[in-house]
Amino acid sequence: MGRINRDVVIAVVLVVFTAVFYGATYGIRKTSYGTVGSEVWPRTILIALGTLCLIYLINSWRARHETQGERGGGGLRGWFSTYRNALLCFGMYALFLATLDYLGMLIGGILFVFLLLNLLGGWSPRRLAIHGAIAVSTMGAMWAVFTFGLRVFLPEGEILRIW
Predict the structure, then answer these.
(1) Measured distance CA(163)–CA(46) in Å, rounded
(2) How far is CA 144 from CA 41, 64, 107, 116, in A?
(3) Contact, 81 vs 134, CB < 8 A?
(4) Distance (Å, rounded) from C-alpha 80 to C-alpha 89?
(5) What is the C-alpha separation between 48 and 58, in angstroms, rounded?
(6) Potential cystine with 60: which of 3, 7, 122, 140 (Cβ 3.0-4.6 Å)?
């Protein structure tokens, strides 16, 4: 068993919060309309979240990964080197939001996922095909669920509006 580090503390806090939130679902008011109770979705999400938090706790306790990496040294250059991937994700998300009115949710989401996977994972021809398949399938499925299953109006963008 590994020593208690900040990952273990955070995992314990997340497990406790998830348990508290799950307990709060018993206070959700029952509605007379609908076929599924109003507590079903929150409990389903919290069970999935609690499972992931427990996996995080177990992996943190084992200490099989290094939590403190020596990447870039000190100063501003070291800070950018350490947090490059996170900054790249936030920057790409800001670009996705900025182009949402023009590209729409479907095309913008596919481009966002595809470019982010390639920026983080590499640009080899094999990876381009894999990342393209992941982007199209996941964003297409998400778009279909929200558009047809849940009847949510997602931004269609200028490109799809022309067709």
Answers:
(1) 40
(2) 19, 39, 13, 21
(3) no
(4) 13
(5) 16
(6) 7
- Residue 95 burial by CB count (10 A; 0-12/13-18/19+): exposed, middle or buried? middle
Question: What is the spatial distance between Cα 92 and Cα 47, in angstroms, rounded to a whole number?
Answer: 30
Q: Which residue has the tokens 């199209």?
A: 136
Please say whether the beta carbons of 158 and 107 come within 8 A.
no
Please give the structure tokens belonging to residue 85.
């991937």
Angle at 16 between CA 13 and CA 19, to 5 degrees: 150
pTM above 0.70, yes or no: no
Interatomic CA distance for residues 2 and 61, integer angstroms? 5
pLDDT digits (tens, 9 = 90+) for 80-126: 888 999 999 999 999 999 999 999 999 999 999 999 999 999 999 99
